[in-house]
Design a protein that fits this description.
about 250 residues; alpha/beta; Isoleucyl-tRNA Synthetase, Domain 1; hypothetical protein PF0899 fold; two-stranded parallel ribbon; 8 helices; 6 strands; globular; EC 6.1.1.9; tRNAsynth_Ia_anticodon-bd; valine-tRNA ligase activity; Anticodon_Ia_Val
């Protein structure tokens, strides 16, 4: 449930070792830039919804922000590899984001947010999240948010392809971009979240590659070394049999 999601995110963040000498990797810098914008944008939307007494919509907005954008995307992007420390800049940004998320959640979930807020840092006697002010909303980079949505769609397509072709997440893949790459600046995000060996811009996709479209751009993943032909034929035959049975039942 949602309480567990919040608690587990807190435990994950507070459990990281921090290396103040380490430089923030590209993906972490991109993730911080993106989440700061999406957080500021959503906080402004929630404030507007409160003024209009649309409380259920405000709750759903902060729920989606925490569950989808923060937990499923942001934390996965910045999470250090097993046994490694996180850089100090990214860690402090993450604590700041979590603090603001708790404040946005507090009107709906007062008890867990107060408890976690108290545990984040050593607080003075009498301090409470109830009277802790939200920082003023900063600028929102709508262009970057839109670019990130394209990036998420690319990642989603590659992950779907892995599921369809029974390719494990541990196996690296190559991603081909046919023609213009719309979000080349976000390659670091795509590479980590898809476990890619490389992103190659080319005029023609490899023979036998599985392709998908994002907007007007075609992407392809060469699969000649990743698929067992017999297993793929068996999968397709089973899918065909299922669809034939469905049609017969109409």
């Amino acid at each position: 449930n949602f309480n567990n999601k919040i608690w587990n995110a807190f435990r994950l963040i507070k459990g990281w070792q921090v290396d103040e000498q380490a430089e923030a990797p590209d993906i972490s810098r991109l993730a911080v830039r993106w989440f700061e914008s999406i957080l500021n944008k959503t906080a402004a939307e929630i404030a507007d919804l409160f003024t209009k007494y649309r409380l259920s919509e405000a709750l759903m907005a902060v729920y989606k922000l925490f569950w989808d954008e923060f937990s499923s995307w942001y934390l996965e992007m910045i999470k250090p590899a097993y046994g490694l420390a996180i850089d100090g800049v990214t860690y402090r940004a993450t604590l700041s984001f979590f603090d603001k998320l708790l404040k946005l959640l507090h009107p709906f979930m007062p008890f867990i947010t107060e408890e976690l807020w108290q545990q984040m840092y050593e607080r003075k006697e009498g301090e409470s999240i109830m009277v802790s002010l939200l920082a003023p909303n900063a600028e929102v980079d709508e262009t970057f948010i839109n670019q990130f949505e394209i990036t998420k769609e690319i990642i989603g397509n590659v992950r779907t392809l892995r599921l369809q072709k029974n390719i494990t997440s541990k196996e690296t893949l190559e991603l081909q971009v046919i023609g213009h790459h719309p979000v080349e600046a976000l390659n670091a995000v795509i590479i980590k979240m898809c476990n890619l060996s490389a992103i190659v811009i080319t005029d023609t996709k490899a023979e036998g590659a599985s392709a998908f479209m994002v907007g007007t751009t075609e992407f392809a993943v060469p699969l000649s070394n990743s698929i067992d032909p017999k297993a793929e034929i068996a999968r397709m035959e089973a899918e065909l049999k299922h669809k034939e049975g469905f049609l017969q039942g109409i």
